[in-house]
Amino acid sequence: MQALVQEIQPAELDPQNDDFQIVDVREIPEIAAGKIENAHPMPLASIPMRLSEFRSDKKIIMVCRSGARSAQACIFLQQKGFDNVYNLRGGMIGWVRAEKPLTAG
């Protein structure tokens, strides 16, 4: 059975909202081009070693360029028992198309 990945729209994501833990799974050179404010860089391959950094008391928002890598991260976290995980629909491409702000990586 394939895990169902919950999604959040760019318009629904407020980087200032303390209820969200935003995790950017892109590689560091990608993040250098710009990121969502308050997003924590955590390249996809490093997630298994960094599980203790995820907060069960917040909505965990996973972000990548298009949404594919972050969906993989969501599935992995769900398999580890997290049920508060969301994929940013469209990734950074969707974020920019929605004219949402970027900060320096």
From TrEMBL:
Residue span(s) of domain Rhodanese: 16-104
Native source organism of the sequence: hydrothermal vent metagenome
SMART domains referenced in this protein's UniProt entry, alphabetically: RHOD (SM00450)
PANTHER family: FAD-DEPENDENT OXIDOREDUCTASE, SULFURTRANSFERASE YTWF-RELATED
Protein name: Rhodanese domain-containing protein
InterPro entries reported in the protein's UniProt record: GlpE_sulfurtransferase (IPR050229), Rhodanese-like_dom (IPR001763), Rhodanese-like_dom_sf (IPR036873)
Gene3D superfamilies the UniProt entry points to: Rhodanese-like domain
CDD domains per the UniProt record, alphabetical: RHOD
Signal sequence bounds: none
